């Protein structure tokens, strides 16, 4: 059916934004809630996982220091509520959907969480609310999951309810580009929808960039992370080229980065992980396949990213071969398993595949990560971090993720060290 859309004044809109409900209190939802609360907005933080809510209430959530301080200040206040009761959505002036949008084992979009969140939102939506999707998805998701169902329920989007897309731009663990300093894109179904959504997002950051539609906002996010994926793949490729020419890829990268225009620094590493780069470009590629479109450059970049863990394993094997050894029976310690330094997140971490490949080739693999006590491997088994590592206990140390502020001097006692980050400094990291 045709969606009912009208750009008219929303007469039931409150004079002042006073409350926002957030569906999903994870790596995006929680910092978003804290940012809005710091801006004077009452927060109703909703998450279906009681363990996640308990973690937040205990003050042990994985946040940068500034947000941890905000959390400590917010928790005792009546204007910062945490609940699993979805009916509370009806109380809020605005609702933001901040749930994960991963891909499945076949690299197909998995919208289970997003579809569930939007269905719950539709059950409790009321006139005068502003509904904002922040989760990354393919172009047309806001239209399909919100606009069309709202129309079917008798709403006229732009007249009695506002709907917009404003994809998140939160980089977990990044203290340089904070949420308040990062511009946000907002695409409303109508101009009035964009204005209403802009008022909400404007509490988080003063730099709000409006685009003409939710679809443009959705495509913007896919472009951003596709750009990153292509450049990461190129950085990894140059690392291999540099190795073949006996050059230090970091030295070359830093030198290239001195150019003040036409170059953006991307560093090579063991692979990508987290909730963005391994997933988001596949939403675009999936949509293109459905319409028989192509994006050959992006397709090749994602293939290169998928192959990266295997290249790291082969590099380790080459180091052993130079010493007349193989992987079978070799004791390997993986140093760091989270997808990036300074965070506890292991989602889609290349460490998981690296461990799997090493184990499949007969290596005895353990890991040390002060931020990830336990790890669920790809085969469903679990592993625990070594508590008191000693370099002499292993034949090879593979550097995957070195967290700042932790002691790695023990690594120097390991007979063979393979640095997949290309910039490991056991002294500087401690």
TrEMBL record:
- Domain UDP-glucose/GDP-mannose dehydrogenase C-terminal, first and last residues per copy: 333-426
Record-linked Gene3D superfamilies: NAD(P)-binding Rossmann-like Domain (3.40.50.720)
Keyword annotations of the record = NAD, Oxidoreductase
Top-level taxon:
Bacteria
Q: Which residues form a coiled coil?
A: none
Cross-referenced InterPro entries = 6-PGluconate_DH-like_C_sf (IPR008927), NAD(P)-bd_dom_sf (IPR036291), UDP-Glc/GDP-Man (IPR017476), UDP-Glc/GDP-Man_DH_C (IPR014027), UDP-Glc/GDP-Man_DH_C_sf (IPR036220), UDP-Glc/GDP-Man_DH_dimer (IPR014026), UDP-Glc/GDP-Man_DH_N (IPR001732), UDP_ManNAc/GlcNAc_DH (IPR028359)
Q: Which family does it belong to?
A: Belongs to the UDP-glucose/GDP-mannose dehydrogenase family.
What PANTHER family has UniProt attached to this entry? UDP-N-ACETYL-D-MANNOSAMINE DEHYDROGENASE
Q: Which NCBIfam families match?
A: NDP-sugDHase
| Protein name (record) | Nucleotide sugar dehydrogenase
Query: What organism is recorded for this protein?
Result: Streptomyces caledonius
